[in-house]
Amino acid sequence: MRLRTLQIVAALGAAIAFVLAFMAAGAALLSGLFMLLGLAAVAWLALSLIKGVLRRDRKAEPPARA
User: Fold this and answer.
1) What is the pLDDT of residue 62?
2) CA–CA separation, 1 vs 12, rounded Å?
3) Which of 13, 24, 44, 61 has its C-alpha lying 20 to 30 A from 7's C-alpha?
4) What is d(CA 14, CA 7) in angstroms, rounded to the nearest whole number?
5) What does the pLDDT read at residue 10?
6) Which of 65, 44, 46 has its CA nearest to residue 54?
7) What is the pLDDT along the chain (66 residues), one digit of tens a residue?
């Protein structure tokens, strides 16, 4: 059975579509990974700042005003 030109073009188009779909899925996965990494960094920073504020000596006298 001989393949017609239209069938060959359709097969090449489908192959290109699959490659582009896999590339887009990989980019979305990588983007999501970096988003989660950035979110974790922001959460760690916020927690460390909150802990630093809570560790301050609450009984310390405020500085004297002139």
Assistant:
1) 65
2) 18
3) 24
4) 10
5) 95
6) 46
7) 677 999 999 999 999 999 999 999 999 999 999 999 999 999 999 999 999 888 876 656 667 776
Query: Residue 34 to residues 26, 28, 41, 65: CA-CA distances in angstroms?
Result: 12, 10, 10, 48
In degrees and rounded to multiples of 5, residue 35 shows phi and psi of -65, -45
Two tokens at 57?
A: 């000596």
Write the single-letter amino acid at 36.
L
Q: What type of residue sits at position 44?
A: W
Length of the chain: 66
The identity of residue 14, as a single letter, is: A
